[in-house]
Amino acid sequence: MNIDNINLGYFQGDHSSTCSYCHKGKSYSQGFSTNKLYPSTYQSMMDRGWRRCGTYYYKYNFAQNCCLSYTIRANALLSQQKKGQRKIAKTFLKVVQSDLLKNKVESLKPAIQQISKNLKQQQEQKQLNKQPQQLKQKVEPKQKIVVEEKQKPHKVSEEIVQSLKLQFQQFQELIAQNIPEVIQLFKEYFDSKGFKIDEVQSIFQVNLNIDTVQIFPSKVNSKGDYYSNFMMLIYGLNKKLLFQDFPVNKFALLIIPFVQKYFISNQFLFVQEPTGFLSVFTKENQQKADVHLMQIEKQLVQEKQKIIIEQNLVNQQKQNIKLIDTETFKSNQFQIGNMKVLLKPAECTEENFKLYQSYCKEIHGSTKESKDGYSSFLCEQGLDQKKFIQSQIDKSKILFMGCFHMRYYLGDVLVAIGVVDITETAMSSVYFFYDPIFEEFNFGTFGALVEIEYVKLMNQHFPDFKYYYLGFYLQNTNKMSYKGDFEPCELLCPETYTWVELTKELRAEIDRRQALAVNQRQLRISKQNVGVIDDMKINDKSFYGSVQVSMKGKVMKLSALNFNMNKLNNYLDNAYSRFGRQLMEKLIFEL
Q1: Taking the model in full, what pTM does it have?
Q2: Given strand 26-33, what is the order of strands in its sheet?
């Protein structure tokens, strides 16, 4: 059988079986076996919902299946490790970078157990070191409150209250006259929210009812004679429309320069507090006001530095953890700490079969695996192995395509295998298994992160090679829903065959549809104005005659055969609805 040859007899109709995910309902699929396909053909098939298992290729009938399933992929160039994934990556790197694994060890299991024990002790010590600081943070505010409560505030005279309210009326007018300047103080925030400055200026409110302004006697002598909620009320006027997720303390910090510039009076001195309150000093306490303002400015600098440090920490945390040693990276081998990874054509050996057996027994509780079953499942060369691409950027770089085993070694010991398919534009994850001694370290997730990073590194030489396919995404089962954690990711719409980002909204919609009866579900998830690609109502079967067929080793167009087309229409219609016209015209169907 030649490459890209498919027996038309497979397309008689769907095959049904008990769903292997929920084990309750029915699963329907169309499939065929063939010797080999070109990687480019399989890529086109994956983009229409097909998957491979050995040399058997199958596609679900999305309209009839009990569990909603979607082909899922991630753009490796945009992939952002989540917090939990970064934690897994950091921990696993500590394991494979351990000094205990630098040299050859007689037995790997005791070494891994000792490394695990060491890591747990380090984590416990880290938690203990945090405790005194946490206690200190809890005690300090209580002490502060006690000190403040000891101050005996005097009453604010009516004369002072009226005088200050008059000042606040004037300040209100000043803010109204300088709204553009106020808005500029928050420009970075408004830009991040997508607000246009012109719109913000028209929305910003300053019309306070002055009677709502409160003036209190100061509880702390160094912080003025009085304090007021004037600026907090200005903030409150605008919170709902402009500052909904912008806290008052940040508002106060940014408004300080404006207050100190414009809030000038012959009778009082005004200092904006970072808490949001406005401190008021009488002229007699000029020196005290200057000292306090210096403290505020110093605090402002510290707060800005703190914000920068916190932002840097957040950015560091959000940055993907680098796993592969780029200095020694090659397309067919690379290092991760003391671990060596080799990319080899998929094959069944005694070494990798024993690893697979151990994985199935310890992780899944299964002892029925046969070598023939393993070989047909994960070792078949279902794609043409002779295909490769030479980089136009660096002629020494080669992208080999086909079915591969990504083998992970510690010393001479094989500890994991990632089974992958490689095409011109993508790596497709088929399966991953590992030595059970690594179970606590989430080797499966780590392996997926390695494969994504591999795609990124290869993309530097092959710009079209950028996608990572994870098979099918089923949201109603933990066994398959974890694939949505490799963000940002996309689902293939089963009607339009366009890619749709997996958002919170789409997740909620999938949950809603899953709860409906199968015949009440809507399939389309794409909102693009694209027609249903496989709608057979158009009855466009004119191209059937140009479909290539093979008889007794001879390839010709179907129209050249003296066949009763009506007898073949059912098979051709089924093939058309699964492949689409473009792929059908490329394939060769055996009769």
Answers
A1: 0.71
A2: 15-18, 26-33, 56-60, 50-53
